[in-house]
């Protein structure tokens, strides 16, 4: 699968600021008695593009869902853009409007047109007047190259187009951080490329991104850090070049040999 | 306070049966008439000055008491028997008796039965929730006979079942039997057996605890009865209203004394009540008397002066 | 609800009641609880005030008092001297009786109609579709009344059986259809008769054992024994033999016209029959749809796969289609049973003395204890419903298909 | 080696064969009859049996209908005209049809009012039922309709329904104003504003202003009563059903249990017992001196009944929505009320429409049960006044058949609609 | 799609006997008035492995379903293993127990375990004692490499495993001829391989097989004849090598260019 992604092997050299965007300290999470995330420590700087990889069930999705407060964590501290994630609704709302999220299965709202999908949250959460919200939405739809679909319904678009709408929808909230949870794994190979291109473009503009993906081409091209997780822990992290060519942890080596193997 | 409620509302809610010719039945236009209806109209006339401002609420044997005690109706004029438990336990107040009745049996002539004693093994149609149901059980048990009750809700259903032959016998108040039989196509094919197995004093009733309202209904009824005794009829009432020799008539008609005021009404209350449908005798004759298809004799319901039991307490 | 993210240094503030996910749900629940409690308190105080105004009180003492009325169909000993409670139980049993009868009949009608509706005979399937639509779309109350009318207004009255040249006669000389009900012969067991009955029951058990044996034989030795005829033979032949050998120890008590009514035999009241058939035929239409959907839910591929394996149509039905269809059919079937039980309360429209007729009808009337009786009535029905749906859940869990 | 076998040698067809007509036995009426009616012996027997049943039905019913008498003053007169022949006495329908439709107490000179309310109902309901074909603006009429219908049927001053409607408008305006800040504030603010408005206008007396003759609700009856109960209770029960369904889905245990107990309780008892409650006990629970008429109490109970069933339907719709929709809404920062209002409910309700329609049909049929508590709906009219009247004592079939037909037409129509809708929704969601 | 199959290009050299397994002469079938199969002539020898290809709607499925009497034909003659297919139930039963069929959608019985799926027909049709049937079943389950799943239910297996169970289930009847109707087209690419491997193994054992498939790799590897159908007719047949490299009929050429194109 790796071969479908863009093939430029050098990581794009993009500036990374010193400012901290996300700071996770000693975070732990349980599902019932099952310890999903163990002592996660992670600092993401503004402008960083991080790829998270790891075997299925290793807790990748759970981690990024915690950042967005879609799941609550039980111990430790998550600070996003200076706001500490607590059970205070105010804080949760602040963080959610700072952080955009793109899901594996797009999760567009099928009863709304593409444009309405994109303007819904700006209008109701950010309280932006409708025509302005629509202007912004069209801008981002152009950016993901599907402005002509604005009045269609999600059911009428292909998977790749849907995923691009999902990205545009997140962008319309003008988030400072974008989270992607395997955004391409529900797509056909041709469509994967469309979506990855959009993400690469975003990365080049300096958006802070955390992306769970197994598209190693993508990781090579845009990530400035690859994080490998296993059994709820961060096992290894490194620059992509180092990570792929010279993995240290035996678990990582095994994993890389599998996914690059075929 | 029912009195003021009724006056504020402008209509009297009167519970009647769902349909028993002669006692209370709507005609094709939905206008009610009958012996019980006349009582309602008299009370309405007394209280509201208009005998027409009555809302009739049809009730079955089952719904009548709850309708009354929940306040849905202000009074119940539905051939209801005055019994101890209804008065004491169910907390109702019987305003008097407008018909002295007893339970009888009706049976098709062709069955050749001449006495209730021969009814062993019969299938009996019976309205549920009535005293007649209990009387029936007692009567057959006492006489060591068995029977099969067919319970029904309304007189109309009973009539259909009986006609269709689903039961051999129909039992209810004798007056009700006469009224039901009168509605048959061929009343002559059915006989009412001679036995009367119970006492069924029927009268209008109101809720316990509202004595003012109870008095209004009681004395309206009494005014109708007294009017017959004193010879006040709808024909001569206007004459008498001008004043008569008899102080009691004058008191009733409000030309003397202040009985109306004591009741919380005006002086003309009884005048209007009697004027509405005539006195008791007139009401009886018009709705169920011998000249009607129902053809009930006055019997016990004659004035005491004629050897009957109708006896209005003095208006004084 | 373990929400302990970083509690250090935070003290409780009042605004947290609304803004903090930890306390917010407590706040809402508290408010909801208060509202509900307030509603109940309000209703309760109204009740108290109204009762006081009417001089009544709530008491269940009346249940022990003699009821004073007679009931035409009693499955336990009952006279007018029995208590109201006993009358209620008589009613409850009558409710259960008509419900069970209707459930069985409705299932039979529904299965037959549902299967016939799938038949490749165009006429038959259209006829069944007509039946289903016709009965589903007319209120059950109207059906009850229609069937009751057939019973009372169309069937002959017992007197029609009288005389030398009667207008009506008994079917087979044993069964009388009258407008008061159907009179059928009742079996009378002489002492030896019980032996016959015992033999019959034993042969039913034997036939089941035989079928088991046949199956085991097939599994163990690959020999397929015939089942249909042997089963029938095992069930009936010994009983019939014993019956004649012992000199016909079971006789029939044939209903006879005497006095006003037929006496002897078993009487099925007209109201029972009307209610029973109306419920059965009405619900049968729903069940038919249900059965049809269940069978259709088994994909054509299943039948084809079984056929391709060489199974014969009847085996395909028994081994492949039915086991799968049942999982789809049974849950809605049970809720139809529930509906039958609830709809049986319409007995009151035909004067069948079920729970609503006794407890919610005459007892309520004669005692005037409206609140108490209706509460009790609802509790009885609730108990029946909960029992049935409890059983349904057990069944559903037992047959759920294993998925991964 | 494989070229030893002739059939393995390459082989190409040069000319294509054209479509040919099937053999005679495979097409046309013969084939149809054979394969649909007489394919096997049991099938042939079934066909004959079905034909026999049909023949019996037709031969029984046809002369009865064709010979029907439509003009006679009473049953005996009708029988005389028939003179022994089979035939229905449909005269009873001709004579009593307005009683069957409107009850026996509704003033006959006012029949045009419920009639026009009934016709307008179609206009009002069309944009809801066929939301694709009709312009959305018609929904405004749908919103006005309940107040209009109230006025038409019950009469009284036009200002009463107008004020009731204005209350909703004002409530909505306040809600729209406040909702951008917080849903709870908007919601309760809206309710409060409406209540205040109603309280103020409730004190006013409109008698005499734009009056139409008032009709007491106990004077409603006949099929009209069934229709009123059906439509009113179903429409009222939808909002309650939604609330109950949301409550039952909630993760707050107390709220959840309150809803579960309510729903299961209502679904566990027969409607009759609830009607008894309306008839005999509800009044005890209302404030002393208040006088709810029977219709209103019945509407309250039937609405409770229907909302429990509708809640279950909507719960199914909610459960059918993928979890991703909830998460997507959360991750965009929508709060609970917004997510429900804008994302979840619109979708869940759309999925639930066929189920709601089915509940509505069932409920409409169940409105006949009010005849048991001696209200004079269609069935009540037939069983009570008409069958008991001296003239028409004994015309069961004509009357019951008429009632059955009326219900059949309505319910069959609605259920066909619901099936059509189900197909529509299925194609929508490709 | 073609590339997922096994890549050995030479057709396996397997012996084909002279005996005729299936003989179809001048067979015609109509659906109503629609002429689905027109003048089909086909002789299959014991041990032959035939692949049927053709555009959608060309009647491939209908043809093999006729062989199994799942559909009746209206004219012409089908003889399977010496038995002429007529409407005689006896004949149909004989043929069906000689011929195994594997469907596109597996059609396992979801209410029975894998083992029960495999023993059902042997017990009830062949009247084989249960323990023997189970032994056979385990043997074939081992052959398709999933003996450990014997006690699970179909719903608990992956698609590829289910299709392999379906093959084992047919084999348990010890058929002399196997029909496959697009057995892999409902599967994910990884699973296709599992199933094709199983089929190749079967072919190597000399089973007579007719297989509707578009897996050209499979056709190349095991088929000794490829039949191309269009509009209800057999348009071309040839050895795989010839068929793929040198199609004669323009319709075949067009079709091959399409499916090999991508
Ligand atoms: N709601 C839940 N309740 C209990 N366990 C859960 C829940 N969601 C996930 N898990 C478990 O938590 C672990 C981590 O899940 P997570 O979805 O984060 O894995 P992942 O790394 O994203 O895997 P994948 O690549 O398959 O998406 C898994 O073992 C999963 O079974
Ligand atoms: N039961 C049926 N009734 C009527 N027409 C049918 C039926 N089954 C199939 N057909 C038609 O017969 C033709 C051949 O169908 P068939 O399924 O054999 O095609 P196929 O070659 O297998 O196509 P595919 O590759 O899509 O499976 C098609 O045009 C189809 O529409
Ligand atoms: N028939 C009736 O409806 C009344 C019966 C009897 N008089 C009673 O009061 O119970
Ligand atoms: Mg994941
Ligand atoms: Mg096919």
Physical arrangement of strands within the biggest beta sheet of chain D: 2-3
Assembly level: heteropentamer
Task: Indicate the structural class of chain B.
Answer: alpha/beta
Number of helices of chain D: 16
Strand/helix succession of chain D: EHHHHHHEHHEHHHHHHHH
Low-confidence stretches of chain D: 1-8
Largest sheet composition of chain D: 2 strands, antiparallel
Q: Which chain pair shows the most residues in contact?
A: C-D, 53 and 56 residues
Question: Which CATH class of the domain at 69-106 and 219-430 in chain D is shown?
Answer: Mainly Alpha
Strand order of the largest sheet of chain B: 10-9-11-8-12
Quote the average pLDDT of chain B.
Answer: 88
Q: How many strand units of chain B?
A: 14
Total helices of chain B: the number is 13
Instruction: Identify every distinct bound molecule in the structure, by name, code or SMILES.
Output: adenosine-5'-triphosphate, glutamine, magnesium ion
Largest sheet of chain B: 5 strands, mixed
**What would you call the shape of chain D?**
globular
Written account of the structure:
Chain C: Pfam families: BPD_transp_1 (PF00528). Chain C: InterPro entries: AA_ABC_transptr_permease_3TM, ArtM/GltK/GlnP/TcyL/YhdX-like, MetI-like, MetI-like_sf. Chain C: It is a multi-pass membrane protein. The complex is a heteropentamer, with two copies of chain A (262 residues), one copy of chain B (316 residues), one copy of chain C (404 residues) and one copy of chain D (430 residues). The model of chain A is unreliable at 1-12 (pLDDT under 50). In chain A, helix 3 (114-124) packs across helix 4 (130-143), helix 3 packs parallel to helix 5 (159-172) and helix 5 packs parallel to helix 6 (189-204). Chain A is built from nine helices and ten strands. In chain A, strands 6-7-8-3-9-10 form a six-stranded mixed sheet, sandwiched between helices. Chain A is globular and about 50 Å long. Chain A is of the alpha/beta class and 262 residues long. In chain B, the strands form five sheets. Chain B has a five-stranded mixed sheet with strand order 10-9-11-8-12, with helices on both faces. In chain B, a hairpin with a 5-residue loop joins strand 2 and strand 3 (32-33). Chain C has twelve helices and seven strands. Chain D contains 16 helices and three strands. The two termini of chain D are 52 Å apart. Chains in contact: A-C, A-D, B-C, B-D, C-D, C-E, D-E. The interface between D and E is medium-sized, with 19 and 32 residues. Strand 1 of chain D pairs antiparallel with strand 10 of chain E, so a sheet runs across the interface.
